[in-house]
Automatic annotation (TrEMBL), chain A:
Its main location: membrane. This is Sugar ABC transporter permease. It comes from the Bacteria. It comes from Kribbella antibiotica. GO terms for biological process: transmembrane transport. PANTHER family: GLUCOSE IMPORT SYSTEM PERMEASE PROTEIN GLCT (PTHR43759:SF1), TREHALOSE TRANSPORT SYSTEM PERMEASE PROTEIN SUGA (PTHR43759). It is a multi-pass membrane protein. Residues 96-301 form the ABC transmembrane type-1 domain.
From TrEMBL, chain B:
Keywords: Signal, Transport. CDD domains: PBP2_TMBP. InterPro entries: Bact_solute-bd_prot1, SBP. Residues 1-28 form the signal peptide. Belongs to the bacterial solute-binding protein 1 family. The lineage of its organism: Bacteria, Bacillati, Actinomycetota, Actinomycetes, Propionibacteriales. Pfam families: SBP_bac_1 (PF01547). This is ABC transporter substrate-binding protein. Coiled coil: none annotated.
UniProtKB/TrEMBL annotation, chain C:
The chain crosses the membrane at residues 14-35, 73-97, 109-129, 141-165, 186-211, 246-267. It is found in: Cell membrane. Keywords: Cell membrane, Membrane, Transmembrane, Transmembrane helix, Transport. This is Carbohydrate ABC transporter permease. InterPro entries: BP-dep_ABC_trans_perm (IPR050901), MetI-like (IPR000515), MetI-like_sf (IPR035906). CDD domains: TM_PBP2. It is a multi-pass membrane protein. One of its GO terms (cellular component) is plasma membrane. Its main location: membrane. Residues 74-267 form the ABC transmembrane type-1 domain.
Amino acid sequence: MSESASAVEPTPGKNVRRTSFNEGTGRLAALLLSPTLIVLLLVIGYPIISALRESLYTSGGIGDDGFVIEGTRFVGLDNFAAIFSGETGDRFWNAFYNTTFFTVTCVVLETLLGVLMAMVMHKAFKGRAIVRASILIPWAIPTVVSALLWKWMFQADGIANAVLGTQILWSTEGWQSVLSVIVADTWKTAPFIGLLVLAGLQTIPDEVYEAAKVDGASPWKTFTRITLPLVKPALLVAVLFRILDTLRIFDLPYVLVGPNKESVETLSILAFLEANQTRYGPAAAYATLLFVYIVVVAYVFVRLLGADVIGDARASKPKKNGKSKDNQLPPGTAAATASGSLAAGGGGL
Amino acid sequence: MRFERSHTRKAVALAVVSSLVLFTAACGGGDDGSKGNTGSAGGALEGRGPIKFATGKDTSGNLTSQVAAWNSQHPDEKVEITELPESADQQRNQLISNAQIKSTEFSVLNLDVVWTAEFAANRWVTQLPEDQFPDLGKLLPSTVATGKYRDKLYAVPVTSDGGLLYYRKDLLDKAGLKPPTTWPEMIAACAKVKALPEGKAINCYAGQFEKYEGLTVNFSEAVNSAGGVVVGDDGKPNVDTPEALAGLTALAEGFKTGFIPKAAITYTEEPGRRAFQDGNLLFHRNWPYVYALANKTDGSSKIAGKFGVAPLPGLNGPGVSTLGGHNYAISEFTPNKATAADFIKFMSSEERQKANVEKTSQAPTWASLYDDAALNKQFPYLAPLKASIGSAKSRPQVVKYGDVTTAIQDAAYNTLKPNGTDPKTALKDLQTKLSSLITQ
Amino acid sequence: MAQIAAEAPWYRRWLPLVGVGLIVLYCLVPFYWMVVSAFRRPSDQFDNSIIPKRWSIENFTDVFQPGTGFGRALLNSLIVAGTVTILTLIVGMVAAYTLARLDFKFKNLVLAIIITTSMFPGISLVIPLKKLFSDIEWINTYQAMIVPSLSFALPLAVWNLTAFFRQMPRELEQAAMVDGCTPAQAFRKVIIPLAAPGVFTTAIITFIAAWNEFLIAVSMVNRKDISTANVLIASFTGTSGRDQPFGSQMAAGVVVTIPLVIAVLIFQRRIVAGLTAGGVK
């Protein structure tokens, strides 16, 4: 690189390469994207399609000989209809509410905390490595272990009650079980948002901040006018993926509080419990409904907030920040930013 | 890096082909199981060769030595242990998902007693000809019943389990009391102990009341010990009875009056054991495994040597335990069924069971072992355990056991939790639910 | 910002520190409990004293007993998570760069498809996948754990890297190509170093996610010699099967977590520094 960068190539070569860069981009894109798409279609697309198909079938029933009748029967949308009727319907809507509640609460808390963590990790001070390590730890502990850890801390005679001086029965139905799930989930995944936002922060060159300082901007203004807009893409991706994950929340309520507990039953738990009773049709129907719900939420999220993430992915030149009411930096800043960091030696890693 | 067009084409072609293959596979699935024959019932168990034994964790290392003993005698039919995860739910899921894909991986399956019906009815395990297992008559009859589905044998019991009443001998002695045999006696005894200076802070009784399988066990014991049934001998649910009501009410009253501490609603086996070991419980219903742990003198138990074991008390007479334990069955999909059957016979033999109880203290199913003097000396709880298991009742042996136990847990938990529902209504609803689940 | 703080009144200097302290405390307190539980003697496992009365490494020696195969399981975890990370980075960076730079039809559709695959509840994927893997005889192989983890990690990797690459001005590659780089070289030598924080973060997140994966690992593999550490931890039991070996599970948790955190810190210094340095000159 070092020689080729400094070496001045003859102009013809440049022309050839530039054309090859733009020629047949569709085909080139297909080629470059194919590994990703093949893996995803194979390992996830296929199970999704087979689950969608499964949701239209039913199996089971015990014959007169005492054996389970083999094979599956096509039942159309019966599995879906069954979910919405009677007691099952109440259970579904309760799980729907819980899922939504967990997602909104946890993601909001995690975003606030995560951004805070990122700011802390980004600051240059002595002992930063220790701070970074400690923030990383909750995210690095295997879920298997951390769920167990929280379960023991929240036992009737556990450390949580001992420290708080209370006698709360955390795993019983009610607000306390919901709270325990939220605390454990926030603890575990706020670092995830923190890490992704930190990466965003690291691509902002110091010059931008110095310029802001020269202009006499207050720290809060610097944060809202410079930091936030510049980390917005990274932050939005992080939040989007947290939303997708939390909508599918399963382990924590299941391990910490337990199955069949109304207060913390989520849609994923319902799907799991059905599959656990080998009723794969209804289980697939629950999974499909959850899937549809997540698709809708993600779509709305991207439409409302994510214009930067996906909206201008196609034509990045023509439309820019059209409807953004934030007093954002002018369109050129990103370029200035990156070249600035190039000059500055890669920013403050 | 130069991109060749042919690569693009190949990649695209590969993607198309592989997705085509997948979709055909997706549409072809599901029906290929219909060829399953009902004729395997009681047929000859054929095929010999190395097999795999799927079981929960070998906790004491004893299983390994048992299997080593077999392997040294059968060099051409070696058995390999596959350890499944610790939780029973995950064990069942692993076994079922292997059966779903008709995997030949596992040959001998270690099944919890409540899984027999489900595995048998789905044809995941092979029916066993009873004449090939001549020792069945020497096992405790209640345990053999757990291996049957619709009167046919599908699994051989190797370990059993029954509930025991652990009590604080030191405190009962001080109050001049004998271990209680009925629920009212137990309440009275606790009142007396609480009157002692040493007994002031103690809680009276706890079983397992968290919403999980243990609650089904404790609920069934309460109902059976009051003379009721959950599922009758005719296979029909019958919980909307005065007897069942008396049983459930006793538990509910226990929570209301403080006879059972509030925290017990979160107890599984382990928190309950801890409360007992810490000296916070006068009476505790648990399994035999507690005996050795509560007697440890390394400081983990504050009551080592200070407690005794008795059969469970009933409402007005002797109590009825719920039967636990594990049975060995043969996977329908293994080619080496003859080896598997021999291995099961080997493991359920008197010699092996004796070795097992000595090493692991798991309750044997072989009846005569309970009268073995040396064993009784080593495990003083064997006599009450024999009484417990001998009269124990199985949980419902139904295909949809998962739904049945969930329904029972719902009813019991909703009654016992703070501000719970009225037991009468709960049982009535439970009867309706069970009737729709169990249609035989 | 540090300078700003220095000139500010005392509360502005101390408030951030208090904030840092609170965050660190919040993250570390549960972890502290895990470590302390691991170092208790099994006999006073359920003690609630903040500092153990007697320290012991018995839980750790239990974890590494010869029969448990825990060392082997750690190696397996490393193989799986390492391969997943490398593959995810290679495949994901190529895809992300394509999405960030090339103009082609259906770009939004591709991005949408990629993210859609991480919207299906994971627990519902297991049985179809197990059928598929059993048909192609992948049960009990490393790839049966690697490929699903790869596909779980790819959507986040592609989206995140796309966001990062798009922030890099096009003029950079154009300048590099003026200087004679091929597009691939421009990508490798200019863009990746500049996006290093993003790439590195993606690597950490992928690695940890793969390291922590449990559901697929437990379902697709039933041979102990290629099981991952997580699966092994879940199969820990006490002496009777009913008593839970909380202490050794926590000890195992410490053993799988600490090296991870240390590795991340070291990598962060070395690799990122290396990448960035390469990009500058």
